[in-house]
Design goal:
single chain, about 130 residues, alpha+beta, 5-stranded mixed sheet, about 30% strand, globular, disordered N terminus
């Protein structure tokens, strides 16, 4: 992604995805919809969590494509990252970092790996 970000502004989900896909060569199918504004603090936590999730994907078997959905609405914000790779469990350190990123803004995260079926990470932050 070209352009510059204002100092102190967290990277957006779209910026993180673009940079990662360009660097790794792994295509990303993204569904990004914000029905309600996302506070900067939450957006920053989502970007950190997304970097960890993509790092886990990159560290393991590289899938043909990564699917990412980030939506916000009246009830909160949801970030889902999935792929149809080998379904290897993600390292505990990555899951701990994901959990910490969501917890700092009152959210929760789950990671589900299915052998030969891929991995799905879903994190939710409810509006307060």
């Amino acid at each position: 992604m070209s352009g510059t970000r204002a100092p102190g502004r967290p990277a957006t989900v779209a910026e993180v995805l673009t940079a990662w896909s360009e660097r790794t060569g792994v295509p990303v199918e993204a569904w990004l919809w914000t029905g309600t504004p996302v506070p900067a603090r939450v957006a920053g936590a989502l970007a950190r969590a997304l970097r960890e999730a993509l790092g886990a994907v990159e560290d393991g078997e590289r899938p043909a494509v990564v699917h990412v959905a980030c939506t916000s609405g009246a009830r909160g914000v949801r970030l889902t990252v999935s792929h149809e790779g080998g379904g290897e469990p993600w390292p505990a350190s990555r899951i701990a970092a994901l959990s910490a990123a969501f917890a700092e803004v009152g959210g929760l995260v789950t990671v589900n790996s299915v052998p030969a079926g891929g991995t799905t990470m879903t994190g939710v932050v409810r509006h307060r």
